Amino acid sequence: MTDKAMSVLRNFEMFGRTMLELVFLSVLVVAGVFAVPGCQKYDTLIEKDQVCQQKWSDLEADLQRRSELIPNLVSTVKAAANYEQSTLAKITEARASATSIKLSGDDFADPAKMKAFEEAQAKLSAGAIGRLLVSNENYPKLQANGQFTDLMKQLEGTENRILRARQQYNESVKDYNSELGKIRGAVVNKATGTPFKPRVYFAAAPESTAAPKVSF
User: Fold this and answer.
1) Could you read off the pLDDT of 105-138 as tens digits, one per residue?
2) Which of 43, 107, 118, 133 has its C-alpha lying 20 to 30 A from 100's C-alpha?
3) Residue 201's CB: how many other CB atoms inside 10 A?
4) What secondary structure letter does DSSP report for 182?
5) How big is the CA angle at 156 (ends 207 and 154), to the nearest 5 degrees?
6) Helix (H, G, I), strand (E, B) or coil at 79
7) Cα(130)–Cα(74) distance, integer angstroms
8) 168-198 per-position pLDDT tens digit
9) d(CA 117, CA 100)
């Protein structure tokens, strides 16, 4: 092979390598263009999911406060003569049921588990405690008990906080689910192995959304 042919061949190889490098660089640039927004969207989903978890923790804190008030309430009410023991028994039973259900991880994407949690809380809030509040008017001695009055006011305030915490949790779920449902959010979620799952709203029974009415 002549020197001229060898030179042409070398130039062709160099040209081929240069073209391959340009193609590779182009692929990297294109990948970067899509990767950066994708990373940002992933971070956004992480942040909104964390907000949901925080709001749920706030709700759990208020539910725990109510649960801790109930033993004191029951003990105080027991001091009232001739008070219906069945009502106190139902309150204690409902409290045990409500505190036995814990949600975590994928539970928030499971409608059945969320419904079980909601029903247990409604049974306590609108059911057992509601019956106590309605029937307390029949017991003047109970109404005159200062400790009972203070506990009921605390319980009423707690129910109002629980209602607000539910609303705030649902607002964060709406924000998170909306972000996840967008095209880019869905693509990023699928590309990363679908670590994000739509959360179920806290849909408490209608009667449980009203704070107990304290009447003396």
Assistant:
1) 899 999 999 999 998 888 887 777 777 776 666 6
2) 133
3) 17
4) S
5) 155
6) coil
7) 14
8) 999 999 999 999 998 888 888 888 888 999 9
9) 9
Domain boundaries, the chain: 1-33, 48-209
User: Which SS3 state, helix, strand or coil, does residue 204 take?
Assistant: coil
CA dist 68 → 23, 74, 146, 195 (Å): 67, 11, 19, 35
What's the CATH number for 48-209?
1.20.1440.20
Q: What token pair was written down for 79?
A: 């001091």
- Residue 159, amino acid: E
Structural tokens at position 163: 């209602």
- 37-75 pLDDT, tens per residue? 557 888 899 999 999 999 999 999 999 998 888 888 888
Could you tell me the pTM of the whole model?
0.74
Question: Both tokens of residue 121?
Answer: 């809380």
